[in-house]
Each structure stands twice: as structure tokens, then as C-alpha cells.
From TrEMBL:
It comes from Algoriphagus aquimarinus. SUPFAM superfamilies: Zn-dependent exopeptidases. Coiled coil: none annotated. It holds the Pfam family Peptidase_M28. This is M28 family peptidase. GO terms for biological process: proteolysis. Residues 206-412 form the Peptidase M28 domain. InterPro entries: M28_fam, Peptidase_M28. GO terms for molecular function: metalloexopeptidase activity.
């Protein structure tokens, strides 16, 4: 019996010694190496539809390959490619009663080459009066899966101009169109309109790597963060015009890459792990929306969305918060797994900002997945907010690399019972 116990002890010690220590993989030098590349000036802010965004995607894919991750689904590379459509109005003709309609008073949100409204009964009708809340009435229509005509009082002219810029962005192909007309005639008797669009394809790509699970291959845990930013803008006082996006969100993307490397070295995941760098978060979350549609949400056990972890949280070092903490048991599981460590997760302290539905976790969360964002970013009103948020000053020199490394380690350690299958977070209530 003593020999058996001694043999088991030696075997256990040998197995433990073969398990890589987290600091040998997730360390400041590696974190800083990746962060430096993604937030460098030659990435020019990683703006949508630029060669620099493609360059960032290639770098992420190369790191996934070095880490030994597999391709996702039936893909033959780490790139998950898809097309957006951008429709630019070439002509708009028609009338609302006796009022002539043109590109000066009409905005069309569509991906079709031609949009025709023959009468007021063709489309659902929405009216935005002078004293109405423009945002509440108009912006949900932009996301509607139906044909809508919106009549907008000229008192909202400034917002109408902004609406035109938003409608002109690339979007997913859809059979539906929304027509916005600025007019003081909110009770018309007739409407006839024809819009011709020039439609162009805009290719985008997420970068996705996988570590297959052992006993629970069909149960997924997702680690994600967006790699795009807002590019080059107006020069600041230092004549810097490159919005490097070091914290937003090269930091979160770095974490995804480091976690992929760590877990593939560990090789102890019973559930399948998916690591994804999302595109187009800054333009409407199109990358995460597309990715989410490639999965059965009932098979996604949890999602860790990592967003802006490069600065200290309001509690100081070795802390971060979890958005939507009360919406599932995932936060409690992560807290439990960190008991005894120097790090702690807290519930989101900024509920008024509605952060739970403002990042790449949103689509999966709406489908019932316990999908939460982990962040350290201060999202209060100035002067206590992030001073470099969406500014040219968001550079690597403003980040706390030591603390950022600890955040990544904490995510790795706190997720251990979820990836092993021991814990399963409760589901988030689905949204209609």
C-alpha cells in the first residue's frame, strides 16, 4: 500500500510539474509585445475597410497559428469572412401630397438597388412630431426587419442630417427598406417615391481560432474582443491624428490572443473554446452579430467579451467589473474561482450607461447566452471617466501593462470551472 501511495504521489507531482505555470505564458513582456504591434502608428487606428485593419487581422491570425489553435467550423483559415452592402442614393424622386421629394429631404436606409413606395399603405407609418423624442422613435426603425416610412418634423433637422450619415453606412443585406422624410406635413393623403441606389460590397472578417473540447465538444465557451478602431481623425493639440486605440480595444484583443495561447498549452478544457477577434464593433457590432449567427446559442455555455482592460478600474489595481452581473450566475462563478487570490471582480458600477448591451456580447446575450463584458474602463461622467477614450491620446504609454496582465490572468483562472464543465452559468433572459 505504501508503494502504491508513493507511486501516486510521484505521478501527481510529475503531472503537476508538466502543467505550465500561468506566468510563463501570460506575462508582461508577451502582453506588451502584442499590444505594441496592434496599437502602433503604422496600424493607423485600424479603421474599417482599410489595409491596416487587414494587417491587424493577419497579425492576429499568425499568433493564433503559433499558439496551435484550429480553424473554426468548416473554414480553411482563421478568417471568418462576410460581406456588407453599402447603398448610396443616386436619385430620389416623388411627392408627398404636393411636396416634391429628393435627396435634400429624404434619407433611405436600404441595401436594394431600387426602392419604390406607391402609397401610404405600402409601408408601416411612423410620425415624429416637433416635441417627440427623436432617438426613441427613429433609431429602433433603423434596425427593424420591416418596411417603414418615417415622417419627421423639420424641428429635428440636425438629427435628420446625422441620420443620413448613419443610413449611408455599410450594413447586412436585407430585403427591407426604411424611408425617412423631413416634412411639416405629418398627415399626408398620398405618397409616391422611387429611389435608385448604387450598391457596393464591403468585405469584412473576424479572426477565429478554436481549441476542441474533450468530453463536451458541442458545448462552447467564447472569448472575444474587437480589433477595429476609428482610424485617423482631426489632429489634437500635439498634432497627432492617429487614434491608436491602445485601450479600445487592442487591449481586449491582446487578452484574447494570450488566453488562446495559455489554454492550448494547458490542454485541459472539456468544453470547446472559441477565440474571436471581432471586426466592426465601432460601426455597429457587425462582426459579433455575424459570428453569433453561425452558432446555436443553446450550445454556447458562456461568453467572455473583453473590452478596454488597459487602465486601472475605479477600485484600483487587481480589479475589474462584469457588465450585467445580475443577469446570470456567471459573475458569481468567476468570483468564487478567485477566492484567495489578490484579484477581484465586481458588478458593473455604471448601470446608467447600459454597458451590457453596448459591446460585442450583446447579440449572444439577447439570445439568452450568459455573455458578459469584462472591463476596467471608467465610464462615469467627466472628469472621472477615461481621459483618452476615443481620442488620439489612447496610446500604449497610457496603459498599465502590469495590471493588464493581471486582468488576463484573472480571466484565465476564474473561467477554469466553466471550461472544465464543473460549472454552468444560468441563462440570460432572452429579448424579443
Amino acid at each position: 500500500m505504501k508503494k502504491i501511495l508513493l507511486s501516486l504521489t510521484i505521478l501527481g507531482t510529475a503531472l503537476y510539474s508538466c502543467t505550465p505555470k500561468i506566468g510563463s505564458i501570460i506575462n508582461v513582456s508577451e502582453v506588451e509585445r502584442i499590444e505594441t504591434v496592434l496599437s502602433a502608428d503604422d496600424m493607423k487606428g485600424r479603421q474599417l475597410f482599410t489595409p491596416e485593419l487587414d494587417k491587424a487581422a493577419d497579425f492576429i491570425a499568425a499568433e493564433f497559428q503559433k499558439s496551435g489553435l484550429e480553424f473554426f467550423g468548416g473554414n480553411d483559415s482563421y478568417m471568418q469572412s462576410f460581406d456588407m452592402l453599402q447603398a448610396s442614393p443616386s436619385t430620389i424622386n416623388g411627392s408627398l401630397d404636393q411636396e416634391a421629394l429628393s435627396t435634400s429631404n429624404v434619407t433611405v436606409n436600404s441595401t436594394s438597388e431600387s426602392v419604390e413606395v406607391k402609397s401610404l399603405t405600402d409601408y408601416e407609418l411612423v410620425k415624429v412630431a416637433k416635441d417627440a423624442n427623436f432617438n426613441q422613435l427613429v433609431f429602433p426603425v433603423l434596425r427593424a426587419d420591416k418596411n417603414v416610412v418615417v415622417l419627421i418634423d423639420p424641428a429635428h433637422a440636425a438629427n435628420f442630417a446625422r441620420l443620413g450619415r448613419i443610413a449611408g453606412r455599410a450594413k447586412f443585406p436585407t430585403e427591407y427598406s426604411q424611408v425617412f422624410i423631413m416634412t411639416d406635413n405629418l398627415d399626408p393623403k398620398s405618397l409616391a417615391l422611387t429611389a435608385k441606389n448604387t450598391v457596393t460590397k464591403q468585405p469584412l472578417k473576424n479572426v477565429v481560432g478554436v481549441i476542441p473540447g474533450k468530453s463536451r465538444k458541442d458545448e462552447y465557451v467564447v472569448f472575444g474582443g474587437h480589433y477595429d478602431h476609428i482610424g485617423i481623425g482631426r489632429p489634437d493639440a500635439k498634432q497627432d491624428s492617429i487614434y491608436n486605440g491602445a485601450n479600445d480595444n487592442a487591449a481586449g484583443t491582446t487578452a484574447v490572443m494570450m488566453l488562446g495561447k495559455y489554454f492550448n498549452e494547458l490542454k485541459d478544457n472539456e468544453r470547446t473554446l472559441i477565440f474571436v477577434a471581432f471586426t466592426a464593433e465601432e460601426s455597429g457590432g457587425f462582426g459579433s452579430t455575424y459570428f453569433s449567427k453561425q452558432l446555436d446559442p443553446d450550445k454556447v455555455v458562456a461568453m467572455f467579451n473583453i473590452e478596454m482592460i488597459g487602465t486601472d478600474s475605479k477600485w484600483g489595481p487587481n480589479s475589474a467589473y462584469i457588465t450585467g452581473f445580475e443577469k446570470s450566475s456567471m459573475g458569481e462563478i468567476l468570483q468564487k474561482n478567485l477566492v484567495g487570490s489578490k484579484f477581484h471582480f465586481e458588478p458593473d458600477p455604471y448601470p446608467k450607461q447600459n454597458l451590457f448591451y453596448r459591446s460585442d456580447n450583446r447579440t449572444l446575450a439577447e439570445l439568452g447566452v450568459p455573455a458578459h463584458t469584462i472591463s476596467t474602463s471608467k465610464m462615469e461622467e467627466a472628469p472621472n471617466d477615461e481621459p483618452n477614450y476615443h481620442k488620439a491620446s489612447d496610446e500604449i504609454g497610457t496603459l498599465d501593462m502590469d495590471n493588464m496582465t493581471e486582468v488576463i490572468k484573472a480571466i484565465a483562472l476564474s473561467s477554469k470551472t466553466i471550461i472544465s464543465g464543473k460549472d454552468t452559468p444560468s441563462r440570460v433572459e432572452k429579448l424579443d
